[in-house]
What does this fold into?
Amino acid sequence: MKSGYLQTDRLMAFNQHIHKLSLLPKDEDDLLIVNNTVRGANFKGFICQDCGLIVFDYTQSNVKE
It folds into this structure.
């Protein structure tokens, strides 16, 4: 695992199903992680290039400068 940052631009969501038009949550288990129409966010995290998984703490976002 390598450390780094997951970066977003405007919206980022974890949804139970793919939403074609909007990332906004539709199901009760959907989670809007970032909703910032002006700036994105950075999340400290880790990536495994062997298995393709990314782990990050979405409670510690920093607004992108």
